[in-house]
């Protein structure tokens, strides 16, 4: 590992050279940050299902190789580019794939958390401001081959370059080996329960898919005092972990002799107040009533399997990105409340495995086999 402010940084990165190909741990040369950018030394990164889908090449928009994946991480600012005023060398930070410039009409609006310039964009594989990459692989002749970026972040590397809009400063006392989960999973799930659905004390909730996002929804609903949190999943092993994260009741569709929505209706005497689709399965949209929040990643091309008249029975459907959190504005305060004990998130419950960075392929295997929620990689 070698870095110098204002110059290239050389560090280890996990590079994907083609869809589904093995990760190659190799030296990556990282350019210095340009105007309004920061270079971050990643200390911890974890793996999300979105990374898995991108690695397998399941989404056309994400097929750009060679590429450095990863979007859930934490680290320390190593250097900053011209014009960056809110971040400095040594700051503890988490990258966010859904950026916030804090200046555009979208950021100034209280109705959306999608920035006009730096919102999540799966079609992007370069830096926003100049359309170029900051990552390079060098061959024996010293020739530099560009490596593509991923979701504004690219965290499977010792050093990454972020737009300052996609980098959030947090309390330096916060444990970075847990705060990395705020880059995606915990923020998305808890925020869906709090910001998108506004779950209240006594509410009834159904969660379809008990991966990390679904369990983070459960955590958010539990903290809000939901009276019944029903977890729906075909993997019975998920039920054990679900109990630790606030799930009160479980439904395995494979064990049901009737449609799941009828089972849930009987359990709740009419239906739940809120349902959350966290599995990337659009068919479950027929299983709810009340407000349904869509969080799962859906392969293209997919359309909603609903007739408009089905919305006349009181059902509402809404999408959710990053838990409707405005990252730069709201995450620092969220961390402060976690540190003070005002918010008691069970971060440890999400991390089922911890491995060194060199074993990233094993971490992906664990996720693909349904054996892990979050595998924390130490870089």
UniProtKB/TrEMBL annotation:
Q: Does the keyword tRNA-binding apply?
A: no
The record's listing under Pfam families reads:
ADH_N, ADH_zinc_N
Q: Any idea where the Alcohol dehydrogenase-like C-terminal domain is? A: 213-333
As its record notes, the protein acts as a catalyst of: a secondary alcohol + NAD(+) = a ketone + NADH + H(+); a primary alcohol + NAD(+) = an aldehyde + NADH + H(+)
Task: Report any one BP term from Gene Ontology.
Answer: formaldehyde catabolic process
**A GO term, aspect molecular function:** zinc ion binding
Q: Which Gene3D superfamilies match?
A: Medium-chain alcohol dehydrogenases, catalytic domain, NAD(P)-binding Rossmann-like Domain
Assembly and interaction partners: Homodimer.
Q: So what family is this one in?
A: Belongs to the zinc-containing alcohol dehydrogenase family. Class-III subfamily.
Cofactor (UniProt): Zn(2+)
In terms of InterPro entries, this protein maps to: ADH-like_C, ADH-like_N, ADH_Zn_CS, GroES-like_sf, NAD(P)-bd_dom_sf
According to the UniProt record, one GO cellular component term is: cytosol
Official protein name in the record: Enoyl reductase (ER) domain-containing protein
Give the Alcohol dehydrogenase-like N-terminal domain ranges: 36-171
Record's keyword terms, sorted: Metal-binding, NAD, Oxidoreductase, Zinc
């Amino acid at each position: 590992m070698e870095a110098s402010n204002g110059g290239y940084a050389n560090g280890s990165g996990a590079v994907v050279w083609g869809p589904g190909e093995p990760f190659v741990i190799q030296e990556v040369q990282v350019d210095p940050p340009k105007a309004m950018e920061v270079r971050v030394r990643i200390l911890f990164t974890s793996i999300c299902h979105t990374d898995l889908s991108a690695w397998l090449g399941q989404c056309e928009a994400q097929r750009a190789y060679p590429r450095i994946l990863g979007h859930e991480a934490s680290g320390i600012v190593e250097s900053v580019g011209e014009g960056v005023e809110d971040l400095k060398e040594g700051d503890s930070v988490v990258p966010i794939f859904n950026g916030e410039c804090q200046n555009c009409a979208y950021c100034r609006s209280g109705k959306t958390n999608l920035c006009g310039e730096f919102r999540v964009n799966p079609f992007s594989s370069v830096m926003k401001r100049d359309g170029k990459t900051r990552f390079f692989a060098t061959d024996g002749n010293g020739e530099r081959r560009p490596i593509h970026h991923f979701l504004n972040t690219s965290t499977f590397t010792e050093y990454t370059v972020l737009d300052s809009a996609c980098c959030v400063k947090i309390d330096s006392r916060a444990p970075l080996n847990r705060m990395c989960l705020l880059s995606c999973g915990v923020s998305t799930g808890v925020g869906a329960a709090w910001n998108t659905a506004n779950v209240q004390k006594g509410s009834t909730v159904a969660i379809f898919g008990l991966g990390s996002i679904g369990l983070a929804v459960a955590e958010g609903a539990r903290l809000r005092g939901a009276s019944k949190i029903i977890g729906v999943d075909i993997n019975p092993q998920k039920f054990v972990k679900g109990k630790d994260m606030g799930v009160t009741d479980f439904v395995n569709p494979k064990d049901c002799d009737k449609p799941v929505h009828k089972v849930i209706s009987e359990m709740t005497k009419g239906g739940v107040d809120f349902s959350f689709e966290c599995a990337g399965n659009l068919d479950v949209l027929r299983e709810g009533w009340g407000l349904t929040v869509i969080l799962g990643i859906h392969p293209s091309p997919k359309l909603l399997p609903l007739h408009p008249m089905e919305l006349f029975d009181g059902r509402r459907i809404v999408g959710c990105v990053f838990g409707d959190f405005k990252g730069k504005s709201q995450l620092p305060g969220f961390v402060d409340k976690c540190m003070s004990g005002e918010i008691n998130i069970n971060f440890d419950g999400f991390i089922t495995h911890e491995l060194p960075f060199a074993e990233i392929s094993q971490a992906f295997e664990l996720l693909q086999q349904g054996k892990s929620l979050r595998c924390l990689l130490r870089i």
